[in-house]
Amino acid sequence: MRPLLLIVEGHGDEKAAPILVRKILEQHGHYDVILRPTQRRGEYPAVAKSFDNFFLAAIKERAPILWIMDFDAKGHDCPSLEAASLAGRAARLYPAWPIAFAFLVKEFETLFLHDEAATRSVFTDIPKQVVFPEQPERIRGAKEWLSEKRPKGMAYKESVHQQKIAAHLDIDLLRQKSGDFAHLERALLKLIDAEIPA
User: Model pTM?
Assistant: First the structure.
């Protein structure tokens, strides 16, 4: 069995990210990956500030690390540069440790706006005439968008709905429509074959 550690941003991600990762692994026929208990470390600015401590705590799990975060922090414009910076810090602390960063622009729920069918399967109360955005990454506040499209008093709740919609996501569709998702998938598949250094 191959171990993998997920590190995520928020409470909803703790349950939703493992569901999404398992869906990807199953589609590729990987049933021998054991997910370590997911760690929650907050938004990118907090992660960047305390990264060294977070990383040194994470490697105690003796598993490759897939770090999934939203990328909506003000003052940060390039996910690939930020990911490279964090990877460089990790390499200085523990060279060759397998770690990858998957930034979702602008947030995890952006994936839900890409997959209208999955979202409507859970939110059957979104009116049929509502048109989902063609470019969800341009929307700041996918959570708010979902809440606004539902009837009054029926807001999107991350801790309740995120894992439910994640369970319905169409992996093939997301791969085609979301560059962020495609990157996450590639990183995941590469990590599960990575060796842990002695």
Answer: 0.95
